Amino acid sequence: MHHFFVDKSRIGEHEIRIGEADRNHIRNVLRMKPGERITVSSGGRLSYTCRIKEYTEEAVVAEILDVRETEQELTSKIWLFQGLPKNDKMELIIQKAVELGVYAVVPMATKRAVVRLEGKKEETKRRRWQGIAESAAKQAKRMIIPEIFPVRPFKEAAALAEKLDVRLIPYELAEDMAHTREIFSNISPGQSVGLFIGPEGGFAPEEIEEAVTRYIQPITLGRRILRTETAGIAALSVLMYLLER
Predict the structure, then answer these.
(1) CATH 3.40.1280.10: which residues of the chain?
(2) CB contact set of 113 (below 8 Å; sequence gap of 6+)
(3) Which of 41, 73, 155, 224 has the fewest CB atoms in 10 Å of its CB?
(4) β partners of residue 170
């Protein structure tokens, strides 16, 4: 069944009213007819199985058939701090990170990042990235839409991560795979995790020094050098495997 998100205010006792943007998608793209079933989430743990009742000018009216609690989300909130990559790689990174269960994505302006986003250009990009996150969340039947934050300088991103329980930064000069395995194995379900991924040029030495002073632990992802769009996905896959119920 296709999955959609609504604000809690749109959920009634017996019906849910799905807004205009999704109405157009459901009716004109998916071509769904009254009587077909969908699932709906409002960002909590409840999943609503519904039957399309009718289309109005502004909404899809869906009859609630079943409500149940779901454990679709990881117990741990995983934050991806991603150095700005070139071209459209950020779109792929966000899509796959959301599918893998990430809680939030913080794009970072780092010293070796080629891309620079400011003002209206940054806001336009962020809106597009948020839309990609929503689409990926629907496809993966997530219960939440992960937030895509505005671009932060590396120092601000590191400061933002201070509230998280575990903070990791894969670094090409880091060694000792056994130590990395130990760090991963000691992460407990329910702990929040921050994962810092550098852009194409990697992190500058002073950024690694800044990370260490803020208790962000350098780790290795193996002997091979991974692309920026691969490194985060690889680490998130390991975390999902370890933290999945």
Answers:
(1) 78-243
(2) 83, 84, 85, 199, 200, 201
(3) 224
(4) 219
Burial of residue 99 (number of CB atoms within 10 Å: 0-12, 13-18, 19+): middle
| CB atoms near residue 40 (< 10 Å) | 24
Burial of residue 160, with CB atoms counted within 10 A of its CB: 0-12 exposed, 13-18 middle, 19 or more buried: middle
Question: In which residue ranges of the chain is CATH 2.40.240.20 found?
Answer: 2-69
How far is Cα 186 from Cα 36, in angstroms, rounded to an integer? 45
Cβ–Cβ < 8 Å for 178, 86: no
Structure tokens at 223: 């002997």
Taking domain 78-243, whether its CATH number is 3.40.1280.10 is answered by yes
Domain 2-69 = CATH 2.40.240.20: yes
For the chain, 245 residues long, give each residue's pLDDT as a single digit of tens.
Answer: 899 999 999 999 999 999 988 998 999 999 999 999 999 999 888 899 999 999 998 899 999 999 998 888 899 999 999 999 998 999 999 999 999 999 999 999 998 887 777 777 888 999 999 999 999 999 999 999 999 999 999 999 999 999 999 999 998 877 788 989 999 999 999 999 999 999 998 899 999 999 999 999 999 998 888 999 999 999 999 999 999 87
Distance CA 226, CA 239 (A): 17
